[in-house]
Amino acid sequence: MAIDARVLLASLLRGDGRATALRQAWQAGRIQPLVSPAMAQHLMHGLAYPGFGLNAAQQQELLADFLPYAEVLRPVSKPAPAALGAPAWSALELAVAGQAGLLVSDDPALQAWLKRSRSAMARAVCELRTSDALLADFC
């Protein structure tokens, strides 16, 4: 399963039931998320955002709540289409390279791009679900 960086960040940073349910799902082995170097970079960059007020040790602790449970892949990276941001594109590349059965993203631009795109990558992508739809299975 590929999970976009924004969904991962929300699940690492928030303490509500939904975020906890997703963390517990990967920690219990009910899901195995994929991670790439690009995705890890997006996570590190997001955790370092000054508005979160996390020091380096806190950032590392949050990464340690995710990275040991993820399968590492190194997809060949291509430039993102103008309509998509780098984090969404990284998640899409990861889903395709890992032949994931599921891509979890709340990014409306990614959802729209997949619906209208004629690219081979869009046709190869697995099922796209929002985090709400995924969490409905765990809550």
Describe this structure in words.
There is one protein chain. With 139 residues, the chain is mainly α. The protein is 52% helix and 9% strand. The strands form two sheets. The protein has a three-stranded parallel β-sheet with strand order 1-4-5. It has a two-stranded parallel ribbon with strand order 2-3. Helix 1 packs across helix 2 and helix 1 (5-13) packs across helix 3 (37-47). It is globular. The two termini are 18 Å apart. The model has no long low-confidence stretch (mean pLDDT 88).
Protein topology:
Elements: E1 2-3, H1 5-13, H2 17-27, E2 34-35, H3 37-47, H4 56-64, E3 71-72, H5 86-97, E4 102-104, H6 108-116, H7 120-124, E5 127-129, H8 131-136
Parallel strand pairs: 1-4, 2-3, 4-5
Largest sheet: 3 strands, parallel
- What is the 3D shape? globular
Counting helices, strands and paired strands, the structural category is mainly alpha
Order of helices and strands: EHHEHHEHEHHEH
Q: Counting H and I runs of at least 4 residues, what is the number of helices?
A: 8
- The number of distinct β-strands equals 5
The chain-level mean pLDDT equals 88
| Overall radius of gyration | 14 Å
Task: Report how far apart the termini are.
Answer: 18 Å
- In helices, the fraction of residues equals 40-55%
Strand order of the largest sheet: 1-4-5
Strand content: 5-15%
Instruction: Describe the oligomeric state of these chains in a short phrase.
Output: single chain
* Model regions low in confidence, pLDDT < 50 over at least 5 residues: none
